[in-house]
């Protein structure tokens, strides 16, 4: 007899964290749940958080991999400070994550994994679950056994069988939050064949049915569709948006793309993604090292390509020498630094925003480079188009500072209408009449892009100081001073292409919170929450870090207090104080984790004399 | 782009820059010979690119009236890779030195050779750092006294030819700065080769390491000190009345004295084979060093292998053929999407 359908309770927002061993497939589980949630029409924000080791010792705290998703019927900007539900596939996952769970929240554990050795590896003396019952709703499910039972007749090996259990958990979550299962079933069909396909399909459905039949869950939940801007959406991560932005720049500028890159976390995915787009004329080159990746890209730029080199912190530093040459030879080049926690190798899979000063000042001598930073995963797309536009218009290298958080997290993205994307006409110089390699456009100060193969424009460029206009090697004192000044002036003039900074909130007042990069969501959320409660606070997000929007100095004067919040020890804060002589304060966090909204809120409230 | 009128004269390849090498520098001769050979190659001047790193030799592009890029120390092969990989239509020449190419740039040189891009790499070897005023280089002889090695160098030197062979080079040659006909012939051969053509040019630094290669530069001593490699011919050197040959047994070379009319092959002298199926033959030649052996000049190895840029272009062409020209709208809408109604 069919069981009566359980009641469905409607909620406005939910945050779930999937946690398990790094071999448990938590990132995949999270990704599939995210896709389904996106298709269900919710606004969402995700935060994958995983170790750098591919397979840390099984069951250890170091090997715990997590994926948090926040989804809602309203506009949301962060993956949420605290999950409402934690799915922990082993004791280590519980230990590493339980303190983040909202008091009163639900934790679902794989009770089969809570055995002697696993508990020991996780640093527990005995069974931790009873003690948690006071603070959380603990749901114990024998996932391993249920999973094995569901597919035992397929006679897969134990390893292969147990590998399916994340999909049992996923199926259960699909039931619990009434998510559509079709996209995941479709994906499975494309990914697996035969018994493995059948096992995964069956286990996914077994999870769904278990939810419906078990007495552990009296109700399931639904989150209504978000009221968001009409249009066609997709889910997108920062790295995918960044790669597509590079492809789009090639299309919009009508020039072939060349990517030189060396594998590095968390930037490698951009190389992987672009390597698939040869039919767009994209050439990717996996170089022998970071230096060669940048150097080859500059060579390609000299030869007329839209050249880009993608990397992360340690690799970015290795590219600085080549960047200096691109400054000196005034070639269009985009360098993307997907920042991670450092210094040195640091924490490769953890986020940070601590390469700003290296981007602004990290080369020998006075070597100005424009710097842009995307605010969200989807914003990476437009940022790359803008970076290339500025690079070719002003004939300059451009640095894009993304970060590990933006790179791997995802959000629903309103797919832009490509007819509305900016198009730029970029002309190579072809006319030998009056040609000089360093004769500048009077408006942009850009020198001509004269590429090999063009008759009559044969010329030499290089790292030695060039004479004004002719580009001939020159050691004359006045010439050097003039060239240093011209290079600086050229970059400064980019401000004419940058939209004025826009404040979120009031155009003057008590407190302005300034941020850049991937902290946009958390800062905006904190400020909006505070404003809703009557606090006189506004926020300003900087996508352009060099040059700054031309109205920035004037804006800063309109607020009594300024707070600069960033995931470093105050780099933008220091820079703003130096540039504008404002007594700004700094809120810094360097834990390899994004800001929590509550951390920002606390500081805002304290600067405003307490919560209202 | 319109085809340029054919350039037929060396002077058309001379730039307007004053050449600033020291008087007597071997680079002058190399420059003159390169400028002489350029019009003979049949490549329109605008399609020629010279790329260099840092050092005395790396000033070379400034003096060539072609496209030129004076880059960063050791990185010229990487810049050249980007140029050639993206623009296979260009004739790309790398000029480097023993310090630039084999010390700071060793990694780039290795990988560029291994990928076999169709480039010409000219490595000027004078066994000393000139531009920084006379420190020992990775090719300097052990024991060489310089400002940085007052008690003598304790570095074991690297041999450029062996390095290139080890990297899997498909074309390896050695020539001498002042031997104009030989240098020109090797430049022609290097250009004709499809793939990375690595050419070591023995070059004299009159200021910091004068006469390092005197025996092979001086016409009078060259005949006994150099072994001219000719494909298909026995490895014979020395004056007519005192001919000697090189025998190679189990990869170990030895000198064979030849009687006046003795057949060298019958006497066990090896016959030069540029296309030998094993690079170990060329390695054996590379191990020949003064004073025990004559120094080989000419082409050590010349074999065919596909080039990086042609395979990369083939992938682009294949993708284009199989998937059609990239469609940005289709890309952005690929996979799962959903529509929010107004």
3D architecture notes:
The complex is a heterodimer of chains A (612) and B (342). By secondary structure, chain A is an alpha/beta fold. Helix content of chain A is 36%, strand content 20%. Chain A has 21 helices and 23 strands. Chain A has a seven-stranded mixed β-sheet with strand order 11-10-12-13-15-14-21, sandwiched between helices. In chain A, strands 3-4-2-5-6-7 form a six-stranded mixed β-sheet, with helices on both faces. In chain A, β10 (257-261), α11 and β11 form a beta-alpha-beta unit. In chain A, α10 (238-253) packs parallel to α15 and α12 (290-302) packs parallel to α13 (313-329). Chain A is globular and about 85 Å long. The relative contact order of chain A is 0.09. The model of chain A has no long low-confidence stretch (mean pLDDT 95). Chain B has helices at residues 26-37, 76-86, 98-104, 106-115, 160-166, 180-192, 214-217, 219-225, 279-286, 308-323, 328-332, and strands at 48-52, 67-70, 91-97, 119-125, 171-176, 197-202, 226-228, 236-237, 244-249, 252-257, 295-302, 337-340. In chain B, α5 (160-166) packs antiparallel against α9 (279-286). Chain B has 342 residues and is α/β, with parallel strands linked by helices.
Main features:
heterodimer, A: 612 residues, alpha/beta, Pyruvate-ferredoxin Oxidoreductase, domain 3, Rossmann fold, 7-stranded mixed beta sheet, 36% helix, B: 342 residues, 8-stranded mixed beta sheet, 3-stranded antiparallel beta sheet, 11 helices, 29% helix
